[in-house]
Structure formats: C-alpha cells, structure tokens
Amino acid sequence: MPYIYINIILAFVISLIGTLIYRSHLISSLLCLEGMILSLFTLNALLSLNINFTLSTIVPLILLVFAACEAAVGLALLIIISNTYGLDYVQNLNLLQC
Amino acid sequence: TLTLTSLIILTLPITTTLLQNNKTNCFLYTTKTAVTYAFAISLIPTLLFVQSNQEAYISNWHWMTIYTLKLSLSFKLDFFSLTFMPIALFITWSIMEFSLWYMHSDPHINRFFKYLLLFLITMLILVSANNLLQLFMGWEGVGIMSFLLISWWHGRTDANTAALQAMLYNRIGDMGFIMMMAWFIIHLNSWEFQQIFLTNPKNTTLPLLGLLLASAGKSAQFGLHPWLPSAMEGPTPVSALLHSSTMVMAGVFTLIRFYPLMENNLTIQTLTLCLGAITTLFTAICALTQNDIKKIIALSTSSQLGLMMVTIGINQPHLAFIHMCTHAFFKAMLFLSSGSIIHNLNNEQDIRKMGGLYKTMPITSTAITIGSLALTGMPFLTGFYSKDPIIETANMSYINTWALLITLIAVSMTASYSTRIIFFALLGQPRYPSLTQINENNPYLVNPIKRLILGSIFMGFFISMNTIPHTTPQMTMPPHLKFMALAVTLLGFTVATELNNMTHNLMFKQPSRMHTFSTTLGYYPITTHRILPYLSLTMSQNLATTIMDSIWLEKMIPKNLTTMQKTAASLVSNQKGLMKLYFLSFLLSITLGLLIAL
C-alpha cells in the first residue's frame, strides 16, 4: 500500500482516538470529529485522483456537504448543553435528568 | 284652524333657538315666555278636540319618495297627542321657571335653557308624529338630549358614566325599534300609522316584540332599568323634566300608539303584563331602602311605569294614557320640591341628614305631602282618577293572578316609601347643620310649585270628565275587590309609619341580606355592568391575538414539536448520559476486534 494512504489513515485513527477519549470538555470531542472528517476528505480526494476514477471525484464534495450539516447539529447540541449547564463539562450530563 | 295652530305651537320654541342670542341675559326670559305662549296656544286645538271629538292629521311637506314609499312631514293630532302636548308644555314652563332659581349661579345657564328647549322640541316631534320615521327622529332626539343633560356637570365621573349608561341602554332599545320599522316597511310598505292600522296584519308578533324592547329600553323596564336611578346625577330640573314626566313616557306612549295592533296579539299582551309587573315590584323593593331622595323618586317613577305597562297588558291603553298624564304632574312636583329641599340645605341629598322641614319650608312640605298622596291614589286627588280604575280593571279581568298580586304588593310599597320620604325629610328633629339658611321667598321657586299643586289636585278630574271613554269601565264588582286598592295603600301607610317610629329606638345591627339586596338595587348593576363588557373583551382578545398569533404561529407546530420530542425521548430512553464510559467501551471493543482479526 502506498505510504501516503497509511499516513492519512493514521491521522484518521488518531482523531478517532481523540474523539473517544477526552477529559472534560465536550468541544474537544467535536473538534476531533472535524479532524476525522478532514482526513477522510483528503483520503477520498487522493484516492480518486491516483486511481484515475473520474466518476468518483464527486464523493469528497458530498462528504463535505454532510460534514457541514453534522457540524451544525453538533454545535447546536453544544449550545443546548451550554445553555442548561453554563459550561460543557461532561460530568454535568447525567446530573439533572428530565 | 287646527293645522295652523298646531304648526305655530311647534315653531314658536324653535324660533327662540334659532335666534342664538346666547350672550344676553334676556335669552332665558324670552325662552320661558315662548314656552308659556306655546302652552296657551296649544290649549286651543285641545279644547276644539274636546268639543268636537274630531281627530286630524296634517301632511304637508313631501320629503322624498323611495321607490314606492312616500315620506313626508306629517303630524297626527288625535286624542293622545292633543292631550299630551299642553301637559308637556305646562310642565316645561314650570320647570323652566324653577330652573331660573335653581341654576341661577351657573355660568352656562343659557346653554342649559337651550338644551331644555331642544329636548322639548324633540319630545313634541315624537308625540305628534304620524309616521315612524318622524317618531324615530324624535326618539333619537330625546335620547341625545338626555345624554347631554345628564352629563351637565361633566367634570364629575359619576355623571359621565350615568350618561353613558343612559345612552347604551337606550341603544339596546333602539335596536328593537329599528327591527319594527324594518318589518313594517318590508311587509306593509309604509311607515304611516293609518296604513298600518288599516291593513291589520295577522302575524304581528315580531314587530311588536321589537316595540316592546324599544319601550323597555326607553322606559326603564326590568332588564334595562339601571340607567334611571343613575340618571339622577343630572341637575334636578333635568330629572324633573326628562325622567319623571316626558322622556320615560316616550316608550309607554309609543306602546299606546300601537294599541290597535296589540289588541289582537295576546302573546305580546301577556309579555307586557309580566314585564310591567316584575318592574313595578322590583323597583318598589329597591326604593324602600334607598337613602338619596332623588333616587327614591326615580325608582318610584320606574315603578309607576311598570304599572302603566301592566295596564297596557290588560288591554286598557286609554287608562294607561290618563295615568301617564296625571303622573307627570305629581312626579314633576315631587322632583321640584326635592330640588328646593336640596338647594336650601346646601346640596344635601341624603334623607338621613334632613328632618324637621315642615316648619321651616311650609310650601315645599305641602307640595311633597300632596304629591305623595296623589301618587298613592288618595281618593279624589289626581292619582285616584287614574290609578283606581287601573286596579279595579285589573282585579276584574282574566289575567295572570301572579301579576295581579305583584302589582298589589307594589302599590302598597308605593305608600311605604312615600311615607318614608315624608317621615325622614319633613318630620322629626333637624339633622342638618344649623347654619344653613332656609329661604323659600323667591317667586321663581314658589310659583311653579303652586301651579303644579293646583294641577295635581284638579287635573285628574278635568281629564276624566272631558274625555270620552273608549272602553266601558267596570261598573259592578264585589266590595272587597272595590276597596282593594285603598286597603293595600292604607296597609302600606300604617306599616311604614310603625317601622319608621321604631327606628327611633333601635340599635343599628348588621344589615340583613334582604336589606343589602334592596340597597344595592338588587345586585343587578353590579353583576351585569361587569360581566357583559368582560365577556365581549375576552372574546375579542381571543379572536384577535390568541387564535392567530399565539396558537397558529407559535404553539401549533414549533412548540408542540419540541415538547413532543422531548417527552418521547425522555420516556423511551433509559440512558444515563455517561459519555466517557460509552466512548471508552467503543474504543476498547474496536481495538480488540482489530487485534483478533489481525
């Protein structure tokens, strides 16, 4: 496998670990989520260019669209949590259950 | 001759209004003399009618023609209008002379006289109208003048609310009047009385219901009555003219005008009878415990109006008319003498603060005594010639026994509250501050009262001797029924005298429930004046704001969606929100899977 793919997949894996393991702030998880999407985007773009499969050059663009929606939803959740608790500490999330 | 004289009568007061010399002092005297001459001239057609019994109607100026309806200026001079016009003019003459004394210190007295004159003119238009349009013009005219005159001292909020009350209750009655006019023009194509009575339609319940509503509004029957006691906020001449002898008679007068239609419709007669009976009992109960002398007299007017309605209900419109004419005299006199008491006691209207006036104000106390005796139907004074036949005819006719009993109870209460006025205002020791100067020497005060005293004593005799009865009166009846009216009146007198003498020795405890019912006018104004506006305001608020903005735009989709989702999510899920635990377990299982696969 070419070296560059391994590099980008490694970047993806590191971002994934960063999403799943975080200390206190929820926003760091969202940030790593953005990193995952960035690495996926780069992987897709490089793959479709190197294999010369022109029909799949649209895939990174679609990925970008969905990434934008998802980032918006994530930020909305962050704002609701921030409105209720004042901070985005993860310890707060099981305090006041509705 | 009849035509010319009646037209001159109506134009004499009008020319005084049109001259508009308001700034001079002699405007008042010219107005008063104009009304005096109008009274003298109006006696001529009346005496001609008495001699010849010829009715006339004058139709001179053709106003307009709407397709098939011809509207013109027409005057009807029959028994009712020819008898009522001199009486109205006489009373207005006396009241204008009285208000020269009463309103002497008022800076706008010229405007007051102008308003009184306008009221008189519109009342005469109402009385002499031959078609419904002219009657309606007079009707609205007296309504407007009543509004302007009640709120004469318009700096006082109570006066303004009272005038508004008068206007609104009259308006409710006007709706009935307009319905009647609409029915007549649709079905009979005319607004003239002659055509209506000739065609004699068979299904007259709907327009007569409208007429009953209109009279109930104008004459303060039960349900539309609170404006009459509140209208005492106006000056006493206004109360004497409008609310005792003329304006509140307008409703009863119109009902009397339509007697050919009402003879044939028994439903309306029963309705009138019951409405009149309820009114007379209710207002008599309320008059028993009032403390303001003008309110007692106002409620007494209301009670007598109920009695007139009862008379119309037993199909005796002519008796009702005669009672109307005689009632005008003694009620106006009662109001004028109460005005004299009020002014002389330095604007004191509470009867608990008067007393001992029969020595210091002899003419006024004579007037009150004679007026009260005439009101209760003392034999051979004025009220006897009208009230006694009413009670006798009611006793002998096929009517509702309940209505009859109620009317008799109200007649005895009439005696009771009249005794109450005499006892508290005239007898006993003075309860007012002793520095007030009591002075009856002004001829403007004394002459009207003297004239009205003469009228109260003799007019009943004159009117009943000079008119030809249209229906045969009851000639024979058992003696206990014949004396019924006199007996209940005497009962009322004695009971009231006993109770009033007992009040010297009683300690005042908490007023009983019956007492508060009577003093607050039966809780009627308190409940309805708040509930009806509240209902319409909340309905309009609901329609305008709540339905469109609040429900449809805000709550229907957006807010409902959020609450639905939230309750569903919180019901269904049993997660505990331990995010880091979930993420770590995810990572662990992924790494284990990768390690095992590789």
Automatic annotation (TrEMBL), chain A:
Signal peptide: none
One GO molecular-function entry: oxidoreductase activity, acting on NAD(P)H
Subcellular compartments: Mitochondrion inner membrane
GO cellular component, one term: respiratory chain complex I
Functional summary from the UniProt entry: Core subunit of the mitochondrial membrane respiratory chain NADH dehydrogenase (Complex I) which catalyzes electron transfer from NADH through the respiratory chain, using ubiquinone as an electron acceptor. Part of the enzyme membrane arm which is embedded in the lipid bilayer and involved in proton translocation.
InterPro entries: NADH_UbQ_OxRdtase_chain4L/K (IPR001133), NUOK/Mnh_C1-like (IPR039428)
Upper lineage: Eukaryota, Metazoa, Chordata, Craniata, Vertebrata
Subunit structure: Core subunit of respiratory chain NADH dehydrogenase (Complex I) which is composed of 45 different subunits.
Keyword rRNA-binding among UniProt keywords: no
Keyword Transport included in the entry's annotation: yes
EC numbers on record: 7.1.1.2
The name this protein goes by in its record: NADH-ubiquinone oxidoreductase chain 4L
Keywords of the record: Electron transport, Membrane, Mitochondrion, Mitochondrion inner membrane, NAD, Respiratory chain, Translocase, Transmembrane, Transmembrane helix, Transport, Ubiquinone
Coiled coil location: none
From TrEMBL, chain B:
Biological processes, Gene Ontology terms: ATP synthesis coupled electron transport; electron transport coupled proton transport
One term of GO molecular function: NADH dehydrogenase (ubiquinone) activity
Main enzyme class: translocase
Major site of localization recorded for this protein: mitochondrion
Signal peptide: 1-19
InterPro entries: NADH_DH_su5_C (IPR010934), NADHpl_OxRdtase_5_subgr (IPR018393), ND/Mrp_TM (IPR001750), NU5C-like (IPR003945), Proton_antipo_N (IPR001516)
Family listed: Belongs to the complex I subunit 5 family.
UniProt-recorded name of the protein: NADH-ubiquinone oxidoreductase chain 5
Upper taxonomic lineage: Eukaryota, Metazoa, Chordata, Craniata, Vertebrata
Originating gene: ND5
